[in-house]
Every structure is written in C-alpha cells, then in structure tokens.
Amino acid sequence: MNNRYAIVLAAGQGSRMKSALYKVLHQVAGKPMVHHVIEQVEGIHPDQIVTVVGHGAAKVQEQLGTASEYVLQTEQLGTGHAVLMAKDKLEGKEGTTLVICGDTPLLTTETLEKLFEMHQKAQAKATILSAYAKDPTGYGRVIRNDAAQVEKIVEQKDATEAEQQVTEINTGTYCFDNVALFQALAKVGKENVQGEYYLTDVIGILKEAGESVTAYQMPHFEESLGVNDRLALAEANRLMRQRINNAHMLKGVTFIDPLTTYIDADVEIGSDTVIEAGVILKGTTKIGKNCFIGAHSEIKESIIEDNVTVTSSHIEQAVVAQGSDIGPFGRLRPGAKLGRNVHVGNFVEIKNATLDEGTKVGHLTYVGDATLGKNINVGCGAVFVNYDGKQKHHTTVGDNVFIGCNANLVAPLAIGANSFIAAGSTITKDVPDESLAIARARQENKTEYAKKLPYSQENH
Length: 460
Ligand code: UD1
Ligand code: CA
Known about the structure:
Elements: E1 4-10, E2 27-28, E3 31-32, H1 33-42, E4 48-53, H2 57-64, E5 69-72, H3 79-84, H4 87-90, E6 96-101, H5 109-122, E7 126-132, E8 141-144, E9 150-154, H6 161-164, E10 168-177, H7 178-185, H8 201-208, E11 213-217, H9 230-250, E12 254-255, E13 262-263, E14 268-269, E15 274-275, E16 280-282, E17 286-287, E18 292-293, E19 298-300, E20 303-304, E21 309-310, E22 314-316, E23 319-320, E24 325-326, E25 331-332, E26 337-338, E27 343-355, E28 360-372, E29 377-378, E30 383-385, E31 395-397, E32 402-403, E33 408-410, E34 413-415, E35 420-421, E36 426-427, E37 436-437
Parallel strand pairs: 1-4, 1-6, 4-5, 7-11, 12-15, 13-16, 14-17, 15-18, 16-19, 17-20, 18-21, 19-22, 20-23, 21-24, 22-25, 23-26, 24-27, 25-27, 26-27, 27-28, 28-29, 28-31, 29-32, 30-33, 31-34, 32-35, 33-36, 35-37
Antiparallel strand pairs: 2-3, 6-10, 7-10, 8-9
The chain binds uridine-diphosphate-N-acetylglucosamine (UD1) and calcium ion (CA).
C-alpha cells in the first residue's frame, strides 16, 4: 500500500471561543476535540502522524502523548504556514498526506477512508473533503468551473457575492500527494483579507500548474462541523451524543429519553440495561448488563457490574459488584467498593471503604475509611468518625455485626465479628467478637414526675 501520512492542525488559540482554554482542548462527549480527531486518524493507519502545536503546545502534547509526533508553530500565520511546519518531518517523502484540523471532532475513519479511495481513484494531486451546507457562512467555498471541475477554494472573507452563494464547503480536510503538497506550499502568499498563509491556496496553485485536483463530497454535512465558537461546540456535543446513544441502543441498551442522556465517548454499557432521563455517565465508566440507572444519576470513572440498580445517585471512582442497589440519593465517593448484593439507601455517603457481600447501609449514614465484612447491618444515622481534625483513621468491622442507629464509631477502631453495637453508642474502644457494646448514659425513669412539669396536661 501507498505510504500514508497525517498532519493535524492544532496550533490556533481559537479566539472565537473567548476562552482561556485552547480551542482544540475543549471537550466533546468528555474528550478534547483534538483527541477525537487523532483517534479517527489512527483508524486509517498512517505511517506518521504529525500534530502542529502552538498555543497550549505543552497541554496538547500532554493530552495526546505518544499518539503523534509534534512540530511547533510559534506564530499562527495561517493554516498553510502551519502545514509548512511539518516540512522537516515529511518533505519529499513519497505517499499521500491527510491534512485535518483539530477542531472537526465528528469526522470518522470511514469518511477519511472514502476520501483516500477517491484520491487514489482520481489519481489526483489533491482531493478536498467537501460537503453541502444549508448555511455555508464561515466556511471556505469550493469553486468549480463550467465543467464542474474544482478550480480553487475561496475563504468566506475573500469571497465575492457570487462565490458566497456557493453551498459546497471545504471541511478543512484533504488528501495531498505529499511531494506536490510541499512544492505548492512554498508558493503560497498572504495577499488576502486576513493576511494569512492559507492552506486552501494550495488547491488553486496545483490547478494552475495543470495538476489534477478533485473533491469528495461527503453525504452528511453535520459530520464535518468545524467548531469555532461555543454555539458550534454545543452543536458538536449534541451530534456526538446522538451518535454515542444510537450506538448503545443498537447494542441493546434501553434509553427512556436519549435526548437528555449524556454519555461520554469511552463509556461501556451492557445489554438490557435501562437508562432513564437525565443520566450522566462520564469518563471510562463501565456499566454491566441488566442494570437500571434511574433518573438524574451521575456516574464517573466507575465500574458497575451486572444487575445493579442505581436511583438518583452520584458515584465517582467506585466499584459496585453484581446485584447491589444504591439510592435514591446515595453518594459513592472515590475508593468506595461494594461487594455483591450490598444495599446502600438514601442519604448514605461512602468514601474509601469496602463493604463486603450482603452488607446493608439503609439510611442517613457516613462510612469513611473503613473495611466492612459480610452481612453487616448499619443502622440509620450511624457515623464512621474517621477524622480527628488532623488525620484520617481506619475502622474495621467483622462479618454479621449489627450497628445500631446513631452510633458513632470513632476510628482507629476494630469491631469483632458477630458483635452488636447498641443504638446511640459512641464507641472509642475495640470490641471483641460476639460482644454487645453499649456506650451511652443509662436511662432513668422518674415515675409521676411529668405531672409536675409546667407543660403537663394537669397544669392547663
Ligand atoms: C478553515 C479553512 C476553511 C474551512 C474550515 C473548515 C483555511 C484558510 N480555511 O477555516 O476553508 O472551511 O477550516 O472548518 O484553511 N491552525 C493552526 N495554525 C494557524 C492557523 C490555524 O494550527 O496558523 C489550526 C487551528 O488550530 C484549527 C485549524 O488550523 O484547528 C483551522 O483553523 P481555523 O482558524 O479554525 O480555520 P477556519 O477559519 O475554520
Ligand atoms: Ca475552524
């Protein structure tokens, strides 16, 4: 196969975003735009990927890591100038070079493959990926001659009235004969409204030199969306969300309302799982089969195994084993690990704690920095007192322990298996196995005394 190279343009500040964050690092479905682009480019298996970085170079490189080589464009003098930065890496090499912008996150490997196919078939020196836009405002226009052959690309700002009527737009993605690309780039000037070196001028230069230039018109304009401002960013997120949700539905996941369900690009979901409205699944979260994820739950960087029910709860960096249920209004914080068939009820917060199989924490409880065995019952309002104002301490609870309501377990602490902690106790000393621990004032009943109190029935 012909050698393939790719150049990703990602040096711009993105002034239209009005942001301190560099444009290509703005996220679509939980991932920076340029990361989406690189992943799709990797799908065409280039021999080399060169990313042109400038604004936020270190951040972009940190994001993409070893997926790409990098060249620095210190001054952003235009897309043509940006491609020229890759000269030392690619000039003179035989093969086809894909040039793509870091701000077109929706383009897919399949479309790029079709562009290569067309380029190959036409034996062209340059093939533009073009699309028809209902509203082409802002995009470069593909200008064709009377024989419908591509002549040049004209930028919005340089277009005549007549050229502005053209609805075939330049997506900013192209295949070039690599040798011809760098030869033509040397001839690009900056005599245009923006005073920039336009990559798009390469098309006209090649055409005038009598070379063959063509365009592959992709069927779906939406996929070519270039994100220049926050309106387009929201639109890109909407379209990506639709793509992601459709893919999950086709794999057997039920969505009650896909329009209001927000799932990041790398989330995995098993079949027969039901996802209600307003659910947000982030990062690399994995949800098993046959789960129920109720309305307005948010799950981030977590693993949820099969047959788990989550209702209106927040879960972050946690692991939940099969058959467990959480919520409504449960909160699992980083390091929460639930074994099989664990029950976490309403207003329960769990942080950095392991709860083994069958353990139940039903209501209004904080469990922090603890290891709980199997089949433990934690009563309402219990608190694992893990913090002394300076340090965090750990609590261990053995299997089958019963912790009464409103107990305080002051760490560091160990409670032996099969023990019983009386309600309202503040436990500060370790409890041996099979023991009853009570740590509260004894109750005294003063008979008839209530009658003497000012608010008793008799005094009214
Ligand atoms: C560009 C095209 C336009 C096309 C549109 C598609 C040119 C001159 N115009 O316009 O025809 O319709 O994309 O989305 O190419 N960049 C650099 N260095 C620079 C300038 C830009 O790396 O000096 C990068 C940006 O970071 C961005 C990409 O190139 O990722 C495109 O630049 P942008 O300014 O967004 O170009 P558009 O005006 O959208
Ligand atoms: Ca753009």
